[in-house]
Specification:
Strand content: 5-15%
Number of helices: 2
Radius of gyration: 15 Å
Order of helices and strands: EEHH
Low-confidence stretches: none
């Protein structure tokens, strides 16, 4: 996958391949799989919030560099 183009996920910030041989492009962008993009956006933001709230319990055990990336 060294020669594959990536995009940054707007909600979670991780890199997602744009095209992968043998994988439908649609599956690489979950927002496109929803009929209602606004509903996807709302659910994604809810999930981001849930991850952030859950992450708090692990902060005492995580190195500062990891916290900086995770917390933006």
């Amino acid at each position: 996958m060294a020669d594959v183009e990536f995009r940054k996920d707007e909600n979670f910030g991780f890199e997602v391949p744009v095209k992968v041989e043998g994988v439908a492009d649609l599956l690489l962008d979950p927002r496109r799989t929803w009929d209602d993009a606004a509903a996807y956006d709302a659910q994604a933001q809810k999930l981001v919030k849930m991850f952030a709230e859950n992450f708090v319990q692990y902060q005492p055990y995580i190195d500062d560099d990891v916290k900086a990336v995770a917390l933006g």
